[in-house]
Specification:
Helix 9 runs antiparallel to helix 16, helix 9 packs parallel to helix 17 and helix 17 crosses helix 18. The protein is built from 27 helices and 17 strands. The strands form four sheets. A six-stranded mixed β-sheet has the order 7-11-12-3-13-14, with helices on both faces. About 0% of the residues have low confidence. The relative contact order is 0.10. The protein starts with a strand and ends with a strand. It is of the alpha+beta class.
Length: about 800
């Protein structure tokens, strides 16, 4: 069920001193109030109720809670907003009151399942539009427009997911580059060639080769698995030469690590040069990078200037004299520069991370050698020094990758860090020692076989490990690439579909208010290349050419029409829970044509919505109220007095209660005006119900008919159409007509001094007149005697229940 409001009661908020109640009963309402009467207190209260803020009261110098409370209240009084809905489980009171000398906020409805969920969803809906907000979207930057729509439709979360996928995809590619699997696999294949004479890639081939090698030994073992290879090794191993075998394995492992690292010299240097270049690009203009930290501040300044929150020709931050147009242009220029700097920083961050990962991986490999106990043997002292020296040089890469670009320090040149051929001279000594051990163990065939088979097994297993890790990363890379590409495609299609539908609504509403003008096909378009969406702009056709942005040719009235069109399109697109909106003085800068078309738009396109419409434009109010009455809208007028603050002008029921209480208490000094107003209101209702004709008068004068004019017109209509049953009531109408002069005397400055009895008699006549045209049955749901209930068969006017009726000829 769509949510609508049944009743709003506001107490002690802004200009409302006591209580303003809007008994809406799910109906729309049109409220008129002059500037300064505090009509925006109603929209302020509703905005605070839903969002815990009031947009035009935001700012460091304003204490929202203090600003919300009516300044005439004392600390014992409570400010509150009470809203009752067509779903009673949502009914809530929001209070603002002092507790322990501190203003606190409390909600009466704490239901997580009902109100809390409703309240959270409502925060993302477009419920309120003020005049100051009309140009909010069109004046935003392209990036801000994207952020605004993204946040509302949930696209920002989609973008975050895309960014996560992109980052994961990039990380996988970087990891594959960092590991240099090809180099490590080739080093192990070289070991296989050396030990068993073939670069084996399949387990079956490895087993066949080893079976071939061990065949002369007559071990009785047929190798069919890695476990069988271990069994062969156990069979041929001899304690006498195990030390040589272990030393040989250590030397061969060390030689492989050094050979792999030596083969990566150019790769490491190339990646470092990329990082070095990106670092220097940023370092040359580090101030531009520092400016990225000011992005939010500059965007806030731009918003303040564009929306005219700061109207002086000075900087809103430092208050130094400055032309605001020049300042706005300067801020926009700086934001564009920052956007470019952000792109450079992204490239720098990627290069920096690659070098850091490369250094970390190479340090791990060297640590494997440094942690081997054999390295501490006297004969390995030189190897230990060289490995330690290489670790220091690789660590310099890691250290360079950790350098902050804002530090002011320069990176070492690649020539200072690059690994050299001389750093690996120890390899010659290691090779000689390997050859010496291999020569020694050749005298013992079993030992040679043990060393060769053991090394071949280890090399093969390492190859399989590297291949497994490589395949895993390649699978991740391909999967992430496929997911990412499909996600981007889906993202674009989804966003474009939404934007196209959204644009159609905006254009429809704009064209409705601006028929036959030269601006047409207004639409929202995305900005960006490939998979990157950088912003959103608004374009339209003018003289058969696409133009952007609207500010280029739109007048203020046209820009405001776009603002209203955007808001109303947003209501349809985004408001899934609530079926009501509040429009606060949104037509202030509209010309007459646009005002009329806007009113027609609301009645035609938003008839299903409950609308709270506030205005201070008297002419527009006069026009729209005639339509609003026919559409069953409620009408009200907002007043302000020092005694009552902001309040609704008294309705007849309130006046009736006031009159009867004062008459009962004998208080007659101020009764003249309320009695006259009540009589006027009663006569207007009767005349509308019976379609009583009066002479034509312009605008506001038409609404200020005097009681005697209405009474005479009513009598004339009765004499013309009514049967004898209603004509018999004419003496009652005559009594009121004769007494109406009394009401006029009471409401003006004159020496007439009425008595209580005169006033009671006058009031009794008015009530008797009222009762003629009101059914007295308590169960009658439509008690007014009206032509709407006319019986064409019996020719009678009647009430809704058919109990009270009079003859009436058409």
């Amino acid at each position: 069920m769509a949510t609508k409001i049944k009743n709003i009661s506001i107490s002690g908020i802004r200009g409302i001193k006591s209580t303003v109640t809007l008994p809406l009963n799910e109906k729309s309402i049109l409220l008129y109030g002059d500037n300064g009467t505090g009509k925006s207190s109603i929209s302020d209260a509703i905005e605070w109720f839903y969002t815990d803020k009031v947009t035009h009261l935001s700012g460091g110098e304003i204490d929202l809670k203090e600003a919300l409370r009516n300044s005439y209240l004392n600390e014992t009084e409570t400010s509150s907003v009470i809203i009752n809905y067509n779903q009673s489980n949502l009914n809530t009171t929001k209070k603002l009151q002092y507790k322990k000398n501190k203003l606190t906020v409390a909600l009466s409805n704490s239901s997580e399942e009902d109100f809390s969920k409703y309240h959270d969803k409502s925060k993302s809906e477009n419920l309120l539009l003020r005049y100051q907000q009309l140009r909010g979207f069109v004046d935003q930057t392209k990036g801000e427009k994207l952020t605004y729509l993204s946040d509302i439709i949930g696209f920002s979360e989609v973008t975050k997911t895309k960014d996560v996928l992109k980052k994961a995809f990039g990380s996988t590619k970087t990891e594959m580059k960092t590991q240099n699997f090809e180099g490590q696999i080739n080093a192990q294949k070289q070991t296989l060639i050396t030990k068993i004479g073939a670069a084996i890639s399949q387990e079956e081939n490895l087993y066949d080769k080893i079976n071939e090698i061990i065949n002369p030994l007559k071990t009785g073992i047929t190798v069919k698995s890695i476990a069988d290879i271990d069994a062969v090794l156990n069979h041929i191993k001899k304690p006498a030469n195990i030390k040589q075998v272990i030393e040989l394995q250590f030397l061969e492992k060390t030689s492989q690590v050094l050979a792999t690292l030596k083969g990566e010299i150019n790769f490491i240097d190339s990646e470092y040069q990329k990082y070095f270049s990106e670092f220097n690009k940023i370092a040359e203009n580090v101030q531009a990078i520092m400016q990225t930290f000011l992005t939010e501040l500059l965007k806030s300044g731009e918003k303040i200037l564009i929306k005219k929150y700061h109207k002086e020709n000075s900087c809103p931050l430092c208050l130094q004299p400055k032309n605001t147009e020049e300042l706005t242009s300067d801020i926009q220029r700086r934001l564009k520069e920052i956007e470019e700097s952000s792109k450079k920083k992204a490239a720098f961050d990627a290069a920096k991370q690659t070098v850091a990962n490369i250094a970390t991986e190479r340090l791990k490999r060297l640590d494997v050698i440094l942690e081997d106990p054999l390295l501490n043997e006297p004969e390995n002292e030189n190897i230990k020094k060289i490995i330690g020296s290489l670790k220091v040089k690789v660590y310099e890469y890691q250290k360079a990758a950790a350098e902050k670009v804002t530090s002011g320090n320069k990176l070492p040149a690649n020539s200072d860090l690059i690994l050299l051929e001389n750093d690996f001279l120890i390899q010659d000594d290691i090779v000689q020692r390997i050859e010496k051990i291999q020569t020694a163990i050749k005298k013992d065939n079993s030992t040679e076989l043990y060393a060769s088979i053991s090394a071949a097994k280890d090399a093969f297993l390492k190859i399989k490990q590297f291949e497994k890790e490589k395949n895993k990363l390649e699978y991740q890379k391909k999967s992430l690439e496929l997911i990412y590409n499909e996600f981007v495609k889906w993202q674009k299609e989804g966003l474009e579909s939404f934007i196209n539908t959204f644009s159609e609504s905006i254009n429809e509403f704009y064209q409705y208010m601006n028929p036959g003008e030269q601006f047409y096909e207004i639409r929202i378009v995305t900005i960006g290349e490939d998979d990157e969406l950088n912003g959103i702009t608004v374009e339209y056709k003018y003289n058969d050419e696409w133009v952007s942005p609207p500010q280029k040719y739109f007048s203020e009235s046209h820009l405001n029409c776009f603002g209203i069109s955007f808001f109303l399109a947003s209501v349809i697109a985004f408001n899934k829970k609530n079926k009501f909106i509040i429009l606060d003085d949104v037509i202030s800068s509209f010309d007459t044509t646009h005002r009329k078309r806007f009113a027609d738009l609301l009645f035609e396109k938003f008839a299903e919505y409950q609308i709270i419409l506030l205005t201070h434009e008297s002419e527009w109010f006069s026009y729209i109220r005639q339509i609003a009455k026919k559409k069953n809208w409620l009408l009200g007028e907002i007043k302000w007095t020092e005694a009552k603050g902001t309040h609704l002008d008294e309705h007849p029921n309130e006046l009736k209660e006031l009159i009867e209480v004062n008459l009962a208490n004998g208080i007659i000094d101020l009764l003249g005006n309320p009695i006259r107003k009540y009589l006027e209101s009663t006569l207007k209702d009767i005349c509308i119900s019976l379609d009583v004709k009066v002479c034509f008068k312009y605008n506001d004068i038409n609404e200020k008919r005097m009681p005697d004019e209405l009474l005479n017109a009513l009598k004339s209509e009765i004499n013309k159409h009514a049967g004898q049953d209603l004509k018999n009531k004419l003496p009652i109408i005559d009594r009121v007509a004769n007494s109406s002069l009394l009401g006029n005397l009471l409401s003006h400055d004159n020496p007439f001094n009425p008595r209580l009895g005169d006033l009671k008699a006058f009031w009794a006549d008015i009530k008797e007149l009222e009762n003629i045209f009101l059914c007295q049955e308590s169960g009658c749901k439509r008690p007014k005697i009206s032509l709407r209930n006319y019986d064409n068969v019996t020719k009678k006017i009647r009430c809704g229940c058919d109990k009270t009726k009079y003859d009436w000829k058409e």
